[in-house]
From TrEMBL, chain A:
Name this polypeptide is given: Anti-sigma factor
From TrEMBL, chain B:
Protein name, entry field: RNA polymerase sigma factor
Xref: InterPro entries: PhyR_sigma2 (IPR053866), RNA_pol_sigma-70-like (IPR039425), RNA_pol_sigma-70_dom (IPR014284), RNA_pol_sigma70_r4_t2 (IPR013249), RNA_pol_sigma_r2 (IPR013325), RNA_pol_sigma_r3/r4-like (IPR013324), WH-like_DNA-bd_sf (IPR036388)
Keywords of this entry: Sigma factor, Transcription, Transcription regulation
Transmembrane regions: none
GO molecular function, one term: sigma factor activity
Xref: Pfam families: PhyR_sigma2, Sigma70_r4_2
One GO-annotated biological process of the protein: DNA-templated transcription initiation
Domain PhyR sigma2: 10-62
Family: Belongs to the sigma-70 factor family. ECF subfamily.
Source domain of life: Bacteria
Domain RNA polymerase sigma factor 70 region 4 type: 105-155
Organism of provenance: Alkalicaulis satelles
The keyword Transcription is annotated on this UniProt entry: yes
């Protein structure tokens, strides 16, 4: 038995065969230790090359057999298969959103009942950090400074809710900027995601509130407070907020400032 | 990435997904279902595809995970997915010659344990590196190499690996 590196000794004969295959395929650097091992293996085992050739022939037959199954459908039925998959995925998404919203409503109701209050039907006050959207504007200098350094949230994809991203807006606030991502709904309604840096705070569950006459669902996420508001039913807004929260957790909450021109999104400098 | 873009990506890799699905399931009917489910899952989870240049590995991983789910469901129903009685093998080779030439190899593949089928197909048929295949299957590379080695041995024993020759035609 020839000497093998430790990494190769702890498995069966596979590594040597694999090395020899790689060598015969020309995939090994001729000066590498692996190439030396492969050459040594082929020299010392006269049947190895024949075995590898035999394996290749079997695998070519196998590939041909699988191709014979896979290819005939490719041209004819592939578009139908993919279209059906897309339709079913969309239907499943809708179902998840509906059951998610229903479950959220039940949880809020049950939580409220157990705590002796009903937060879902008794919207509280919005967090002060988000109220600044409708508040007083800072002077232009402060706004520009805030705009230059303030990160924005990577825009969540909400097409599943019928929402298309239309604008990324930064508004001035006395102690920094507040970012708003605007989405247009199917009826022309505007849904806004408001993001404001607040400093470290534990992540929270969703809170219900109202802002400018519309429902607001908000929560704290890392260094930010995030709110979703628009002229929608509270359960629909909650479902959107859940989705935003999931996406924000799947990716960094904030990203480098980028207006996403490929989406036609413009940065609107609107100091108020 | 929107659903339309991902649909285009799936279309590009559909043949590979179908080959892998056929290798995993052992029959055409279950392979069709598996690809349908995997395509659906991919479209739903499209936001998770951060690197489009790795779409093929990503889709193969989804096919494999969907297959494991289906096997678990089948086990719960006590109706094995690969039961040849309940799901007869359907060979759809384009012609009789190809069918005869390939049947042996396909039978040999179907006789392998599921993990070996998956490993061998990804590396030997689909051309993934052992590292990529190990990531797709969620195993260590050494384990994958070992599975491939065993699969090749079994395939070698089962198949007469002489090159495929066309049958002799008598011309009068």
């Amino acid at each position: 038995m020839k000497h093998l590196p430790d990494t190769l000794q702890d498995t069966d004969a596979g590594p040597l065969d694999a090395l020899a295959r790689d060598w015969l395929d020309g995939a090994l650097d001729p000066d590498s230790p692996e190439a030396a091992l492969a050459r040594q293996a082929l020299e010392s085992d006269s049947g190895l090359a024949a075995r590898i050739e035999s394996d290749r022939a079997a695998e070519q037959r196998l590939a041909a057999a699988l191709d014979a199954y896979a290819r005939p459908q490719e041209s004819g039925r592939a578009p139908a298969l993919i279209a059906r998959a897309a339709r079913r995925a969309e239907a499943a998404d809708r179902w998840v959103r509906r059951t998610g919203a229903a479950a959220a409503a039940i949880l809020v109701f049950a939580g409220g009942w157990m705590a002796g209050s009903l937060p879902a039907s008794d919207p509280g006050q919005p967090p002060s950090e988000l109220v600044m959207l409708g508040g007083q504007a800072a002077d232009a200098t402060a706004f520009q400074a805030g705009l230059a350094n303030e990160p924005v949230m990577a825009p969540p994809e909400l097409t599943g809710h019928g929402l298309q991203l239309t604008a990324s807006i930064t508004r001035a606030a006395p102690d920094g900027a507040l970012n708003a991502l605007e989405y247009a709904g199917p009826q022309g309604e505007t849904v806004r995601i408001l993001v404001r840096r607040t400093g470290p705070a534990p992540s929270e569950t969703l809170h219900q509130a109202s802002m400018d006459g519309d429902p607001l669902v908000w929560w704290r996420e890392g260094d930010h407070v995030i709110g979703v508001t628009g002229p929608l039913r509270r359960d629909a807004l909650t479902a959107i907020a859940e989705d935003v929260r999931l996406q924000a957790r799947g990716a960094p909450v904030v990203a480098d400032f980028s207006p996403a021109p490929e989406l036609g999104v413009q940065v609107v400098s609107d100091p108020g | 990435m929107n659903a339309k873009d991902l649909s285009r990506i799936i279309a590009r890799h559909l043949t590979a997904m179908r080959r892998f699905a056929r290798a995993l399931t052992g029959n055409a009917f279950d392979a069709d279902d598996l690809v349908q489910i995997a395509a659906e899952t991919a479209i739903r989870k499209r936001r998770q595809l951060r690197q489009p240049d790795r779409a093929r590995s990503w889709l193969m991983t989804i096919v494999y995970r969907a297959h494991l789910d289906l096997r678990r469901q089948a086990a719960r129903r006590e109706a094995p997915l690969n039961d040849p009685e309940s799901a007869p093998v359907q060979r759809t080779a384009s012609n009789q010659d190809a069918r005869l030439a390939c049947a042996e190899a396909l039978d040999a593949l179907d006789a392998l344990p599921a993990e070996q089928r998956a490993a061998l197909t990804l590396v030997a048929v689909e051309g993934h590196s052992t590292g990529e295949a190990a990531r797709i299957l969620g195993v260590k590379e050494a384990t994958l190499r070992s599975q491939i080695s065993r699969a090749r041995s079994a395939l070698r024993e089962a198949v007469d690996a002489e090159p495929v020759r066309p049958p002799v035609r008598v011309v009068r």
